[in-house]
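go over my protein:
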Amino acid sequence: MTELTVGTERDGRPSSSTRSSLRAAAIGNALEWFDWTLYGAFSTYLAANFFASGDPTSAMLATLAVFAGGFVARPLGGLLFGRIGDRLGRKFTLVVTMSLLASASLAIALIPSYSQIGAWASALLLLARLVQGLAHGGETGVAYTYAAEIAPRDRRALWTSGIMISVTVGVMAATALGALLTAVLDAEDMSSWGWRLGFGIGAILGLFALWMRRHAVETAAFENQSERIDPERSAPAPLPRRQLIRTVALIVMFFSGTNVVYYAWIVFAPSNAVSNHNMDPSSAFIAGLAAQSLALVFIPVFGKMSDRFGRRPMVIAFGIGAALIAFPVQALVGASAWTLFLSMAIGICVWSFTAGTFPALMAEQFPTRSRALGVGVVSSFCAAVFGGTAPYLNAWSSSIGASWIFQAYIVILALVTAVAGIVMRETRGADLTAEVMQAK
């Protein structure tokens, strides 16, 4: 198939190929997050199947440690696939990452249990999760880059918010599957084999995502810079050292609070309600799904606001809001499903301030020749350090009867994010084809 370059119609509107390419990226990203999130949604069952069952708390902590281990591979994936994306194209890289993640999900579905092969089950689960992390780290940076580069400049945050909507759809699909399976299967069947269906479904849906992405187009920004550079050069042009240090520091500050809030209040909230508040699993999944659906409204609204008012106000609003609600959100959750819904709804509203902003914001920090690499490595590193450890820290603090420690941790990181918004320069409307990015 001959690849097309993303373009616009004569009236200046994005072409149909551009819109279909955004849909392909978003649908594939949704399935990536479906596969990735299943681990969190089914963490209770993974703990029972792949680790020694004598101490349930220890098994759960081990499962969350493997979850965090997947995040260790994400920066490596951002580095590897970021370089591939900057050299061989965004579209090609998105096809490869989708293939890897689907394969890893299939592997998890087929791994024998601890009772069958002992510690090898734990080791194989860790290996599959590392492959997922590698693919996911590459997917994130390239997906952000791809969506930002095909978006109209004055609607970049709105368009790239579609990637975050797809993230939410993927998370919701995993949560919905958990609700469905726990509703139709009894506890014994669910623990024995029901959870494996989820990972198998994720692998099958990956085939559809691959078909969508193979028919996508390459971005104009990548095609144009490929024509200008020397093909013999193997490395992307680096940012000036001072600008690089400032950029990385600001992104780390920005992502610290965002990642912890996302994994604590959205991804793992239903599982925590089951483990720590004895909530009925099916009710917890349904409440979580209902709350997550609100993000489908909040994210594009805040993305549009970001295009109108700028990136800085949205970052500051998130940081201050998250710091204010950290303790109340935790205190709301009890044994009733409505408490989980209310807690998650509040958290999702605040998180959406940045969810509608940060794909565009991240892409606006780097020039074309190093954009996928820069976005992939830095965002994946932050996700590993802050997001990957959040569920473990939350579970650990709860296990020792000091859950306030984790909430205080959220407050501190949220305030750090607010400071990043205060000191950063505005990048709304930045030219993504420039060799050196110029913030306003």
About this structure: DSSP finds 19 helices and no strands in the chain. The first helix runs from residue 16 to 41. The mean pLDDT is 80.
